Amino acid sequence: MTYRLRYQVLPGRDPRELARWCAEHAIPEVVLIYGSEELHSGHPAGVGEDLWFEHVAGVKRVLDAHGIGASLNPWVTVGHADRGRTQDLGFAPMVSPSGEVATATASFACPVWRDWLAGHYGRFAALGFRVLWLEDDFRFHNHGPLTWGGGFEPEMLERFALLAGEKVGRAELVAAITAAGPPHPWRALLQRTWREAQLEALDLVRQAVAGRAELGLMSSGLGIASVEGRDWAELFDRVEVHRPHFAAYSDTPGKSLAYSIAMLELQRGLRPAGVEVTPEIENWPHTEWTKSDTQTWSEMVTARLSGADGLLLDVHPFVTGDPARYPRVGAMLDRSRPALDATATPDLQTIGVGIPWWPDTAARIWGDGTLDGLAADPLRAARYLLPYGVPVRAGLAPVSAVFGKVAWGVPDEAVEELLAGGVLLDGHAALVLTERGYGSLLGVEVEEIAERFTPARLPYSMERVADGGALLSVNVQPAVARLAAVPGAEVWTQLLSPRGEHWGEGRVAFRNSLGGRVVTLAACEPEELGRCDDGQRLAHRAVRFLGGEFPLVTGGPLLMPQYALVGGRHRLAIANGSADPARPVVTGTGPMQATLLEPLREPRPVPIHQQSGNFVIDADVPHRGYVIVEW
């Protein structure tokens, strides 16, 4: 396991202090960053670039002399956000879908910016860094204050016109690609335009640094990248190192580990073998109060369990002093290392409910009049399952889960493969598959999607379990599908009005003509349902009905498992996302040994006992702690 410290170069700092601190805490590499955030005054050029080059070169010489490796993270490519900055380098500015014009963020289609980018990276590559990083601003979306982002500049529209064979105005293009109903052909053409512009810029950088440094890519969400038409295979043909985003920038409740586990797993599924992966332990604003040591520790362990080769650390303030001024940070890293060493992941093969994702999903989604409506969130099913103690894995599996707009992304040739196995659907996905002609294989008829705030004489309110009569709430679900079970289907729950009147079916299980099994939930955002023991029992029942034979976890709220074959052994890593300690109960395993990882403490073995065919961990797993079960 390798710590890689991200460190802001500052005039006046003594880099020897940095080198000594890294040696003291066994940090073999520093990722130097310059001109970032508070020090950002626009794209460096001329005298400004010369000054940064001199400072960076000086720090690099000191690190070399002390045997500390170095990589480089230029702060901007096109630019993160204007934040009141302006640029006068002749770059064509980004333009938003509504016509807003950036003051500092450049267009991917601008030849002046492309020349600057290649020249800038080429110049700094001469200093001999191991990796040169492309910041995560190497994207079209999320460039404040632009609404949504850019990609609608005159220069980009000219490139689009060459593909389309006609000139199209910005407003007309936006209206066409977001229009309600089936996708307009221009949507795929615009995505191709964006994709080619991005890859051409990357190729220029690749040529500028060739033979002198590897390229690293920082990335963000998969759904929004799909709207851009991002081609991950093409990108990974051009870069050697990946920094997947996976965690919050500041303190969040422990349940957010479901997002982190799923983000790491789904991006792992897109990355070819041989690409080095170094997730970033986000911390912004850059102060030591932004994120607790406990959360930092838990995110490092989560990343390590996902197969991370190293960890990119944002743990020091960028502008207020040297690492030695923050002894608590060094102590936290030293105390974290034993748990990270105990979670090595050779030959990782994850097991669980499959979460399939196709990067071109946004090209097939039916529009709703907005660009945001073209984004499908592939993490939603994982965020429903993980906190209920159900492990997940990337891609199609014998048991899979498809929620919401992701159902538009399933290729025609994969739909029957999906439905011939076991599949969990939410109400929206069931409607999409019905509209695509596969309704007869689902076991339900979707009569409508009812919105929460649409007035109705008979509003949905509760869900009653047929076996035992327990009641759950659907009262604050944003939307619910009105389901009618077909003959032969099993109705597990029914939805009721506030007065107890029948509203529709809630959860329906079905064996279809392909030999597959389907469970459909009426809720259109099941991950946002109020959680309870009855909800967990229903989730586990669904997984078992669909054919899931892997271990499941109970014993407390928000116990989230990562299940894998690691080095020929089964490993079940269970995180506690609750603030309360818990003793996990594991079903469906053989003889086991368990190791408790408490935040910032040495790992220790803990006993397990068998009870009613299950296995109970005989130790309290604390908030954001892990227990590792192996057999």
Description:
The chain folds into 3 domains: 2-75 and 240-344, TIM Barrel; 350-547, Class I glutamine amidotransferase (GATase) domain (Rossmann fold, 3-Layer(aba) Sandwich), CATH 3.40.50.880; 554-630, Sandwich (Immunoglobulin-like). 30% of the residues lie in helices and 24% in strands. It has a 7-stranded mixed β-sheet, with helices on both faces. Helix 1 packs across helix 2 (46-65), helix 3 (111-125) packs parallel to helix 6 and helix 5 (170-178) crosses helix 6. The longest helix has 25 residues, at 185-209. The radius of gyration is 26 Å and the shape is globular. The mean pLDDT is 96.
User: What is the H level of CATH, i.e. the homologous superfamily of the largest domain?
Assistant: Class I glutamine amidotransferase (GATase) domain
**What's the total number of strands?**
32
Describe the largest sheet.
Answer: 7 strands, mixed
As for the CATH topology of the largest domain, it is Rossmann fold
Strand content: 15-25%
Shape: globular
Write the layout of secondary structure elements.
Layout: E1 2-8, H1 15-24, E2 29-34, H2 46-65, E3 69-74, E4 93-95, E5 101-106, H3 111-125, E6 131-134, H4 154-164, H5 170-178, H6 185-209, E7 214-219, H7 222-228, H8 232-236, E8 241-244, H9 257-270, E9 276-277, E10 280-281, H10 293-305, E11 310-313, H11 327-341, E12 349-350, E13 353-355, H12 380-385, E14 392-394, E15 399-402, H13 406-409, H14 412-420, E16 422-425, H15 427-438, E17 444-451, E18 462-465, E19 471-473, E20 479-485, E21 490-496, E22 502-511, E23 517-521, H16 533-545, E24 552-554, E25 559-566, E26 569-576, E27 585-587, E28 593-597, E29 604-606, E30 608-611, E31 614-617, E32 626-630
Parallel strand pairs: 1-2, 1-11, 2-3, 6-7, 7-8, 8-9, 10-11, 13-14, 15-16, 16-23
Antiparallel strand pairs: 4-5, 12-25, 17-20, 18-19, 18-21, 21-22, 22-23, 24-27, 25-26, 26-32, 27-31, 28-29, 28-32, 30-31
